[in-house]
């Protein structure tokens, strides 16, 4: 396919014309899989777009969508683009004040909701009550004032006007607003144009990583730029097949059914998959082969370690690695990742320890780097092509990266946003005088042009002794290990670093059963706290003295998105957690001089 497409509509038209009978979107309906071909996908998008015109969605307007990852969400998004409008997908986990802020800022003239529950959430918003946008529900609600999805129809007027609007869409038109979830402050709407998103997908294809039958599972929130790229825009460029998984809790089953060729996840999901792999390795399924599989894992880990250190892999070890990779195929089949040509990590950095484990079972996870403001991925590793420890890769074609004198990473390129919606001052602050994007991240470029991201500038801890400490470097040694779920290191203007630690319910239950601990006592049991203590002590051995965790507290429950403690991609909201657990943090500094890594009850 030519790379001279000007808009996302061009990409869609070319794909549907060029491969009309190829699968485009699939989903589970009961025990069966339903599939739309590209020609069927196009017909539904056009019919829906005509219906949106009939409902009054204006060119240049906004359509908001509050729904899970289902085919109607994808259809509605592309239909709005064909109307000359832009879209905003809404996180289903937003608290009411957060949802109010995003909807009021986006000011949609049309809102598509999934069902009666989502409709109720939208209708309770002050902005919606005041401005009364048109409402469409995918599932029946029984409310005659709401247009049912099944009643959207291509009227004569809507179809004629739609043709005119399609011809007027230009590259500089806004295609979507993506609200940055952020770890502090209110969300800002990042404006991304057709040109931005075409540049992003062209750049990703230009890396050479995606030269295969693109098949992916859509399960991360479509309000996040990562999922939008993988589920909406890349398939338009590659002719990909998107398999919808509306509930992330069903991801494991969806992977086994759909077996993606390209799978992207955030670190928390990779941690869950590691736990699944460890459980499978310990199960009766592989009982007779544990010694051989352990040997195969060790071979693949050695290969990965050599590659990460930038060293050559001896030919004899390469031969052994082929044997090991094939021997571990049944384990990858059990995970549904046996056909994954590309496995990638996004949204936050993955620890080297986690990457090493995944590499040891034949899943070589690619790191990348980008922001919502860069339109997606701006820097990426390449599979088996010179990845080294601590680096996130080289610029994606169409992007440039530089590191300023103060260490800040700055980016420019075709995918970079024009700015924030309704935030001229924040937009002005987003760019340098010569037009580079401020990322707020700290890093360096090595002699081969690879980018190393060391931390968020605003998240670096400066202790009372004036020591700069990276919380990410500390937390990555503990997150997802054994019974530990999440970790937040604290120490700003304090004499030493302490940590808040939460436990993973599933792994805590497994630990309790293995040690004969009553489940209701597990979180407070001395054996569990001893396990956490041992993990903290081990982590401290790999940290400099200013970085070491001097005291920690195990919290009684995991953090959640719903409670406002995690972003929708499961990153801790540091300020919210700090404010909520201020008394616990203060208590960690109140008592006597700490011993290294001591636990406080």
TrEMBL record:
Protein name according to UniProt: Acyl-CoA synthetase
CDD domains from the UniProt entry: VL_LC_FACS_like
Annotated organism of origin: Actinomadura keratinilytica
Family recorded in the similarity comment: Belongs to the ATP-dependent AMP-binding enzyme family.
Chain ranges of the AMP-dependent synthetase/ligase domain: 12-420
InterPro entries for the chain: AMP-binding_CS, AMP-dep_synth/lig_dom, ANL_N_sf
Family annotation (Pfam families): AMP-binding, AMP-binding_C_3
Top-rank taxon: Bacteria
Record key words, sorted: Fatty acid metabolism, Ligase, Lipid metabolism
